[in-house]
Amino acid sequence: MEDAASVSTPVLGVSDLWLSRGGQQVLRGVNLQVDRGERVALMGLSGGGKTTVLRTIVALDAFDAGKILVDGVELRPGPLPREARLRDLRRKVGIVFQLHHLFSHLTALQNVVLAQVHALHVPHDLAEARARGLLGSLDVLERAHALPAELSGGEAQRVAIARALATDPPLLLMDEPTASLDPARRGELGETLEGLTRAGRTLLLATHDDDFALDFATRVAILADGVVVEEGEPERVLRRPSHPATRALLQSQGKSLGSPRQELAGGRKSSAGGRLAVVRPRHED
Amino acid sequence: MTEGSPQPARRLVRSTRALVAAAVVLPFLSGAFAPAHLQAQTDSKQLRWGGDAEGGAPFVEADPSDPSRLRGFDVEVAELIAAGLGRTPRFVQVAWNSIDASVARGDFDIGMSGVEDTPARRAMLLTTIPYFEFREVLTVRLGDRDRFATLESLRGRRVGTLGNTQAYDMLLAARRDHGIVPVSYDDDVHPYTDLADGRLDAVVLDHIIAARALGRTPGLVTLPVEVGRGRYVGVLARNQAALREEVNAILKAAMRDGRLERIYRKWSIWDDEQARFLAGMAAPAPAAQTDEAAAQPLPARSPVEATVRYLPSLLSASAVTIVLSCLAMALAVTVGVGVASGRVYGGRLLRLVLTLYVEATRGTPVLLQLFVLYYGLSAVVRLPAFVAALLGLGLNYAAYESEIYRGALQAVPVGQLEAARTLGLTERQVLRLVRGPQAFRLALAPMTNDFVALLKDSSLVSVITVIELTKQTSIFASNIGSWIVPGTLCAAIYLAMSLPLAHLARRLERRWKTPLR
Question: Cα angle at B414 between B410 and B417, to 5 degrees?
């Protein structure tokens, strides 16, 4: 019934989002729209408010002004809504935290089962079968009975993705997804994310990793001084930045503007550049 | 002695004194009072005599008009002895149950405040000639005056007395013979208040104690039947034979010339029976009686024999300790979880109330709380002793448990909670499925420590007449006049209970560190 409408409307609409914390304006009118099937990289300097934007979208942080629309569910400014009113939102958006925050007392499998059984009231057998399927598709099924403390950073991330997907939200947020990965693993993650959007999911990634954004994002939005100053195709925004803030961001990453990327990558971190180059052509298919 | 009417104020004072005295006795059951001991051999011009002012009138009590002074017939007998020896009397306060152990280690020269003449005492210490004869009498509620005439008629009934006395031994015998239920108290006031309250059906104690209680507690009557007879003596260390002879001579002289009679008349404890008794004692050959009793010392028992004889009662007492500790811990955990959740999640008013509960409970002695629950509330609700013990220990430990859980709840990382919220779990589910289980793992080690502590603190409940392991050990020790065997057995049983607990906790901790499969 909603489908006809949601095709034409974006999965995520953030308009004129304001937020102050401790007397400081963190967000000053953020506007951001993400359409179905997109992989949008929200980029900016550390402390620039990327994580805060993600937290407002999943209603962990309240905001002062503006509006957030997640697949038809609206969030308004002011105190966080009561949990009963958040029920719809929780089914629309999932998040993978930078540090994953897997439930430390539960196995990987139990982490993925928990919300299905207790929030969605899926029978346990069904939930477990689905969890195994998710862990399998993310290539961590053999770690199903490991506790989070026993998982590597990459394994923990894939379990966290499976946990977030277990409730089948159309929109998935990820905070600094490459932070816990060694360079060789970033390509695998990128492919995984492509697979997710092919299957109809929408992704918003907060990252300051411009190489990853270039390789795997379909669109880039630059957050600076609490507003989105520039957005567009990764190649255009990151290769030919038009806003000073974008240049500052790239410079902070050690980029000299306008140079061919392969050389840069090769010179800066050769192994990463090399492997990413191998992965990239498949992405550009 | 039927002086005066009920004296509520006095009763309160005495309850407090009982409490203070009990608080001092329990940690040092052996009755060691080092300061007194240090002053021991220094001054031969003094007669250091030990007694318990908690015993109260007519034995030894603080003078109501000047509480720094003592009065009572034992005080005057001590003064009489000191005068005869040409020394100054100096009083040493000692818990009544510890008089024997304390005089044996030299804390004072002679112990006397209603000290009974028993075979165990004679075997362990030197005793003076008896200076007072008492009758064990049966006191019941006025309404029961015609129902219960003798111990036999009290089958299945609860009969109270002071612990470690001849009367208590009589009640233990009556349990075998007539099926009564003996209840041991640490003082001689609360048996009577509990009788009036209906917690007991009768009290057996010395007639002068009963007479005093009847003046204080209305609605009771002492039956004319005499259940037994006993005598008060002074006790001295075994190496004080010369002093004992001097004291005996002084006492005999005082019996002959009427000085003892004057003291007893003054304290309204003189009667024809006493006159006959003193006349007999003062007669030329009274020593026969004393020697006759002395000629039957306790049959010496080897440690093995003593162990075999007392182990069953120690084991059944440790069952009380275990059941009480487990139930109290279960209560403490349940209430503690509730209090901790309330303090973390509750509104301002609830948090304030719970904080007050925790601080008041942690800031006052558990002994006081037990007294309040058992005696203080008895006008409102008459809790059975075991229930009061369970509530007292459980609610006390609940305050400590709640602090552990509160700390553990707050130690669960916020990220864990946020992850659970974004998955659509309600706050209640977050607590039940994520925060609670993680906090429980954090709390497990301190909880085990607390349970071991509770196991040992359960010995405090003997002040409200529950006989558990420590109390049973103390009874056992005073029966055989030595702490060595009972003390060792008691320690071994406590260790046998606490060591496996520590082991279990370590295993549980290990198990929860690895996947539950």
Answer: 100
What is the C-alpha separation between A15 and A33, in angstroms, rounded? 8
Structure tokens at B112: 């006397």
Backbone angles phi, psi at B9, to 5 degrees: -60, -45
Does B515 sit within 8 Å of A145, measured CB to CB? yes
Three-state DSSP class for residue B480: helix
Query: Which tens digit of pLDDT belongs to each residue from A239-268?
Result: 989 888 888 888 887 765 544 444 333 333
Contact yes or no for A167/B423 (Cβ under 8 A): yes
Candidates A86, A90, A103; nearest CB to B434: A103
Which residues are paired to B90 by β-bridges?
B48
For residues B436 and B430, give the distance between their C-alpha atoms in angstroms, rounded to a whole number: 8
Q: Kindly list the distances between the CA atom of residue B126 and the CA atoms of B67, B100, B234, B278, in Å, as whole numbers in the listed order.
A: 32, 10, 8, 21
pLDDT score recorded for residue B304: 76
B428 inside 8 A of chain A by CB: no
Q: How many CB atoms lie within 10 A of CB B106?
A: 15
pLDDT at position B403: 94
3-class DSSP string for B280-312 = HHHCCCCHHHHHHHHCCCCCCCCHHHHHHHHHH
Q: What pLDDT is attached to residue B9?
A: 39
Listing DSSP states for A123-148 in one string gives: -HHHHHHHHHHHHHHTT-GGGTT--G
- Phi–psi pair at B221, nearest 5 degrees: -145, 140
The verdict on a CB contact (< 8 Å) between B422 and A83 is no
pLDDT over 90 at A283, yes or no:
no
Q: Tell me chain A's radius of gyration from C-alpha atoms.
A: 19
Write the CA distances from A31 to A48, A63, A64, A71, A238, integer angstroms: 15, 14, 14, 16, 19
* 3-class DSSP state of B92: strand
**Percent of chain A scored above 90 by pLDDT?**
67
Q: Distance from CA of residue B486 to its chain's centroid?
A: 17
Judge: B424–A97 Cβ closer than 8 Å, yes or no: no
Instruction: Identify all chain A residues contacting B422, using CB atoms and an 8 Å cutoff.
Output: 58, 60, 90, 93-95, 164
Contact B515 A95 (CB under 8 A): no
pLDDT in tens, B438-477: 998 888 888 988 999 999 999 998 888 788 898 888 877 7
Compute φ and ψ for A6, nearest 5 degrees.
-70, -15
Mind telling me how many Å the CA of B327 is from chain A's nearest CA?
Answer: 28
Closest by Cα among A158, A129, A130 to A146: A158
Residues of A with Cβ-Cβ distance to B416 under 8 angstroms: 101, 103-104
Query: What gap in Å lies between CA A35 and CA A30, rounded to an integer?
Result: 17
- B108, B94 in Cβ contact below 8 A? yes
Instruction: Show the tokens assigned to B289.
Output: 């009686």
- Alpha helix locations (H) across chain A? 3-8, 50-57, 83-92, 108-118, 124-137, 153-165, 183-198, 210-216, 234-239, 244-252, 261-268, 270-284
CA distance A20 to chain B (A): 21
**Residues A136-194: pLDDT tens digits?**
999 999 999 999 999 999 999 999 999 999 999 999 999 999 987 888 888 899 999 99
In Å, how far are A267, B245, B290, B384, B506 from B132, measured between CA atoms? 108, 18, 13, 36, 59
Largest separation between any pair of C-alpha atoms in chain A: 56
Compute and round to an integer the Cα radius of gyration of chain B. 27
Closest Cα of chain A to B346: distance in Å? 16
Low-confidence ranges of chain B (pLDDT < 70): 1-44, 284-301, 481, 511-517
At position B139, the amino acid (one-letter code) is T
CB B424 to CB A90 under 8 A?
yes
